[in-house]
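In response to reviewer comment 3 from the previous cycle, which asked for concrete evidence that the modeling workflow produces usable outputs, we include below a single protein chain processed end to end. The sequence was submitted unchanged, and the resulting structure tokens are shown without manual editing.
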Amino acid sequence: MNEKIKILDKYFKPYIPHAKIENAVNQMASKINADFQDKNPLCVSILNGSFMFASDILKKFKFPLQLEFLKLSSYSGTVQEKEVKQLIGMHSPERNRHILILEDIVDTGNTLEKIIQSLQEFEPLDIKIATLFFKPGCYKKSYSIDYVGLEIGNEFIVGYGLDYNGYGRNLADIYVVCE
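The workflow returned the following structure tokens.
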């Protein structure tokens, strides 16, 4: 993980190695296991970006759970759009459940706000948020982020599920765009 890579028209340099990601996932899983051991939650993975994170952390959970997926879109290239679009919704989960959102990255919180609004129709007992990457300097909402893997700056990153125009999701490490 020491050389630049090219994805489409942009160059990216190494930023976070996979070992550091694994460590963050393990620490988050430990906290979530303690908090959800008796709750039988509905876990909601936000596609497409959270698929690697969700896959890795779900294997570490030691409690019964159900899994649903939501697919939203908020980026065009490296620019976040103002409008968040829901592309795939959930299949009528039970009401009155503890909900755990599994998100790849939280920056402004606009996507998170749309997710939480859409989950309210299921009358959740509570909603907890787990994000692998958090950009506290960009965050503009008041929702509590309950589980954070790694805090980062406002850099545009790819890898471990995150993409640039659909590419780069397959990278095990995280790369940051070169200026």
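Residues 18-154 form a domain with the Rossmann fold fold (CATH 3.40.50.2020). We consider this sufficient to address the reviewer's concern, and the full set will be provided in the supplementary archive.
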